Amino acid sequence: xxxxxxxxxxxxxxxxxxxxxxILLKNSGFDVSVALGGKAALEQLEKAMPDIVxxxxxxxxxxxxxxxxxxxxxxxxxxxxxxxAQAELRTAIExxxxxxxxxxxxxxxxxxxxAIVRRAAxxxxxxxxxxxxxxxIRRRDRRVGGRPIGTSRRFVEVLQLAEQVAPTDSTxxxxxxxxxxxxxxxxxxxxxxERSDGPFVxxxxxxxxxTLLESELFGHVKGSxxxxxxxxxxxxxxxxxxxxxxxxxxxMTPATQVKLLRVLQEREALPVGGTEPITVDVRVIAATNRxxxxxxxxxxxxxxxxYRLNVIALRLPPLRDRTDDIPLLAEAFLERLAHARDxxxxxxxxxxxxxxxxxxxxxxxxxLENALEHAALVSESQEIGPAALPERTRSPRATPxxxxxxxxxxxxxxxxxxxxxxxxxxxxxxxxxxAEVLGIDPSTLYRKLSRYDTTAVD
Length: 458
Hints:
By secondary structure, this protein is α/β, with parallel strands linked by helices. The chain is built from 19 helices and 16 strands. The protein has helices at residues 15-27, 38-47, 64-74, 89-97, 110-145, 153-165, 182-191, 210-218, 235-238, 254-266, 292-297, 303-309, 326-341, 350-358, 364-378, 391-394, 412-426, 431-438, 442-452; strands at residues 7-12, 31-36, 52-56, 80-84, 102-105, 172-175, 200-204, 219-220, 232-233, 243-247, 268-269, 278-279, 283-288, 312-315, 347-348, 383-384. The protein has four domains: 7-129, 3-Layer(aba) Sandwich (Rossmann fold), CATH 3.40.50; 147-317, 3-Layer(aba) Sandwich (Rossmann fold), CATH 3.40.50.300; 320-394, Orthogonal Bundle (Helicase, Ruva Protein, domain 3); 412-457, Arc Repressor Mutant, subunit A. Helices cover 48% and strands 14% of the residues. Strand 3 (52-56), helix 3 (64-74) and strand 4 form a beta-alpha-beta unit. Helix 18 (431-438) crosses helix 19. The radius of gyration is 30 Å and the shape is elongated. The strands form five sheets. It has a five-stranded parallel beta sheet, with helices on both faces.
């Protein structure tokens, strides 16, 4: 239902009737547009949907029944009222059975017609409010039950921003290391959006060669290349009315980036081998684990595409910076695993969690889930202790912070240790302030310092 005065499209093949109905309904509080015949009505429906359609049944070329079908294809909630003569009463009744709101017999009184149109407007308003209420309840339930797992400060800040932008149609760029849950957050945004009733379609842009990726994204026409034996709908079209998640966006070739830029700018996509673009109605969420600034400097990623994608940026923290969330994640993963295999839920011991907290998780949340599945399979009881954990998590390789012969290519852990200790020294040993500067929780800082085994924790 549009804001303000309800909009009514009046359709008839007599201009005098259109003029009188336009004056009547406008004086009765409606915004009125008219169409001289069914063909003109279909053209107007292509441009914008009114709140109500008032149409004659019998018209040359395109009948009122065809107008009804066109309205219902575009929006089944739009009430259609028929004006009909006694001789066409059976057709009008059939129209109501096919979804028309009501019919009025000619000749009709102005008061009767206005009363019916007002009833149609009220019915449309009630449906709209009911849909909004259901959508709000669904959003609330998803926030409570479907929210990605985590209570650490940095992760919660990301989720709060995701919830803030979800109701909009803005493009979102999700950044983070591999395995941090970028697709999980993208799905969460979709579930909270106005497009939640539409499809969520995802593709890994690095999993396909360029020619196949273009065909998957934009579709192709028959004969456009060897093996194209029929027209194929692209994923942009398949995601119509919903959300399209483009994972590993930095893996796209420059040629495909140009085509994606056109989709974002023009809201239309050109199938491979085609000459006529198709209209695209999707919300795009892109993700990458690469540094796009560096990719642009190296000439591998277009700056104009970057700025189109980077309307809202969400940067997911790695698991090593949100180790407070490991117990919650572990519990959720073990419950999911138990449900999938129809057995009792395993419990992870405190000792096993301490091992997990000391590990750096290069594979992030995905690696944690795999490690727990491994542990649940090899554990001889319902309790998962350190012995059941994968070897790599129990014996993380330690690299000295300082040595007489430092490595030529220091690991991320070495650099992280050096930086944390440098910030700590710069802040005069104040751990609270150090944590704020680093953007991590104080508890995370204490665990890192304990793992480094330095006098800084004294």
